[in-house]
Amino acid sequence: MAACTFFGHRDCPESIKVNLKKEIERLICDQQVDTFYVGTQGSFDRMAYSALKELRSKFSNIKVYRVLAYMPRNDVVSKDDAEGEDTILPEGIERVHPRYAIVRRNNWMIDHSEYVIAYITHPTGGAFQAVERAKKKGRTVILIEY
Fold it and tell me: How far is it, in rounded angstroms, from Cα 93 to Cα 89?
């Protein structure tokens, strides 16, 4: 089995969700991807997580993990946590300066995935840098367009 992660700019149009779901479903069916790691920042992460939750009704075997960049606050329990979603806090991230925590989390997701689905519109920013790192590490990168 294989794993996939997601990177995209904070702002993305809702119109890409159809193509995003198609690519996720293609990976599940054609590449036997059964594990997905999703960040928690920005609209692309929320869209990827939403698409995965929708696809879970068709593919009950897939595992979806929300990967945190920061220690969760004890006084905040999200609706998703209440539904029993699995959340991962990469080992050692609590010792990383907050300015670098998202990069460290992204690197962890790349290291644990064979595939990356990305929405990139310009060659700057954290999502672009993560995709470039994934390419250098030999990951298969699928770019979503609208």
Answer: 7
